[in-house]
Structure formats: structure tokens, C-alpha cells
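>> Question from a student workshop board

For tomorrow's exercise we were told to take the sequence and the ligand below, predict the bound structure, and bring the output to class. My setup keeps failing. Could a helper post the expected result so I can at least see what it should look like? The ligand is shikimate-3-phosphate.
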Amino acid sequence: MMWTSHPVNQITGTLRAPGDKSCSHRALILGGLATGISEISGLLEGEDVLNTGRVMAALGATVDRLGEGAWRVEGVGKQGLKSPKVDLDFGNSGTGSRLMMGVVAGYPIEARFVGDESLSGRPMGRVLDPLAEMGARFESSDGKTMPLTLAGKADLKAIDYQPPHASAQVKSCLLLAGLNADGETVVRESRITRDHSERMLRGFGAEVKSQRDGAANTVSIRGGQSLIAQDTVVPGDPSSAAFLAAAAMISPRGGVLVEGLMSNETRDGFYRAAALMGAHVGAEDVGDAAGERLIDMSFESADLKGAEIPVELVPSMIDEFPILAVLAAFATGTTVVKGASELRVKETDRISAVVNMLRVNGVDVEETEDGFIIQGCGGAVPGGGMVETHHDHRIAMSALVMGTASQKPVSIDDARMIATSYPDFRAHMMELGADIRGT
Ligand code: S3P
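>> Workshop helper replied:
Here is what the output should look like for this input. Compare the format with yours to find the bug.
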């Protein structure tokens, strides 16, 4: 399914952000484990999240859709999870699969984890190794990739662990396993990553301790705690909104207001980086949801300047580098990204995919081991390229945003993956004035 984004003169309007993907996965998982009925509103109905819902149902929870974004989950509570009769299929989702490995590890059940081509190539050793230390067993290919079978245990042992990578998925996997382990599980992060699991576990009644020390963060959870059903309003996704924000910033006439976004310092690196590049970002407090602050954010056309992106921002904008690269292409001067080697193991190798996306559209870019260096075109991005998306939704959306303001249209080879995280992306972009056509 090929799509082409044609240049337009303005990107304007007001939109409500889609539900946050990370919080949507967690609301279904915690609701499915809790005692009682949890109602969720504003759930992101992207493929990744729907797969997590199906998996929780295969493990014994009752998961029903009540209406648009409205879901009801009856958790398994004390009864615990049952061994699934089918393979657990996570599609494209690293988050769903890694978090659920932690969940399965804490029960005396066995499950086979499968996914699409992109997910089957992603490293799972980062969660399987610590889970094995806690007592879970797994069988996988040599590279510790999916498909794989995981056997959990009723008497898992707590672990004190320092993950070698900054990863919220690893932290969350271990906290979920720790919930059913003997003793106190401790995760020592050298750089804080998104903290939605900690916040939401607390919302479901668990005691989770966190202690910050500069950029570092230590989180711990005592095993044997039960979760109590909780209604959740999912806040808007700052990662999805970054595409709308960037479209406004690079447009000759841009003015976009996105309502109901989650404001969380472990997720806002893109907005801080854009501000460093000269963007004007407005934010107004409008309340809270799911233990998170909510804001409305406004974005407008900007004379962007290249910048060296501070490495401290990397974990809080780990999903936003493809769209940041688009801002950098339109900026004047050089943008340098480093310390981001985790991008190599995302839905695809995002360093090489970003470099190709820019090169085929006439932008001068150099690939480095842990990032890239982009020479901005000062507003005049040539475009005209066909971007290979490699099953990566964020590369697909970034390329289409680039096409809204480049000199010639930008095409992508496959738009299907966009539905994993932002099914309404094209409709939202068209509402703002974009011209994205399918072929
Ligand atoms: C996520 C964590 C991040 C992020 C992903 C969502 C989460 O992955 O890239 O899109 O919800 O925990 P890593 O933990 O691999 O950095």
C-alpha cells in the first residue's frame, strides 16, 4: 500500500491527540491481572494495543469493547492466568511482547510468543536473561528472538538488576515479573526511562518505590501484592502528536493546537529539542488522567536552526528521532544526534532507515554508529523520493510529514504499519490540510 504526500501551503487546525500507546498497553495488562472490572476510555485502538488485548483474553481475562476507545476488562485476580490454547501473537509490538514476558514469567504457565517479521528480528535476550535469573525458562533460537516459548513459575525469585540499556520495556517487564516474585525486585536505571508502569501500578493499588539520583533512577516492587481494578482515562500520546507538531513547524503557514496531551518529563524530549532548534511550543495545563498531567499544546511555523541534541534527552525522545530528523532537514545548519544506538534495534534499524529517508529526498546526511549528522536545507528540502519503511510506522509517518513541505512529493512504499500506533494519522493530517494520497 503505497502513499504519496504532496506539498501544501498550510497545516492548520485543532485536534484531540490519540490515546497514548504505552499507557494503553499497560491499562489492558494491569486491568487483566487485577481483581474486579476496570473500564478504560480513550484507549488507542492501534493494532499493537489490540494485540495486547487479545493476548490478555487468551490468558483468561475478559476483554470487551464497549464503544470507540471504551473498553471493559475483567481481571483474573487471585485465580491467576491460565496457559493459553493459542500462540500469543504480538504483531509488530516490542512493548506488548516484552511486558507480557514479565507477566507470564510470574505464573506456572507456558506460552509461545510470536510476531511479525520485524518483531521476530528484535532482541529479546534483554528481558529473557534477567527473567531466567529469576527462575523462568525459555526456548528460542540462538539469537534469543521470537518465536519463543516461555515457562513461568509460581515461585519466581526477586532480582536486583541494572539493565545495560536504557529501556522502559525491560524495566516494566521486570516490575511485572516482580509483582509475583518472592522478595523485592529492584531495577537500577542509569538513565530514567518512561515511568508509566510505576505510575499505573500505583493507581492499581500496588506499592512501587522510586528514587531519583540525578539522571539515574531506582525502582522497586515487593512481590505478592494484588492489583485492584481501576478505571483509566488514557491521556493523549506525545509521540503521535510529534508528527502533527512537526508538520506545523515546517509548514509555510502552520498553526496547530493538539488537545489533551500527556505531559511527562520522561516523554517530552522531542518538544525540548524542537524548542532548542527555535520552535515555539505553547502549553496549557488542563487537568490530569491516569496519574499523568494533561496539557493542550500549540505549534506554529518556525525558522528552525540545526542543533546538537543533548544526549540526556535521548531516552525521553527515543521514538521521536525519525520526526526530529525531518525538522533537522528543514532547518538551517547542522543537527547532530549521538548516544542513540538503541535506535538500531527498534521496529527496524532506525538510524539507517532515517538516513535513507533523507538521502532519497535530496538531504545531505551522514550515518554514525550511534546517530546521524544532518545538513539542513534551510526550508528547501528537494523531496521526490520513495522511502522504504521496513515495517516501521514512525519512518512511514515521518516521510509523509516531510512531503507536506518539500519541493516535490514524498512517497512511502508501504503505509500499512501506520495502523499499529496511529490508525487516524492520515485522517488527522488531511483535517489539518495535508494532501496524502494512496495508490
Ligand atoms: C516503550 C518503551 C520504549 C519505546 C516504545 C514504548 C514502552 O522502548 O521505544 O515505543 O511503552 O515501554 P524501549 O524500552 O526499547 O526503549
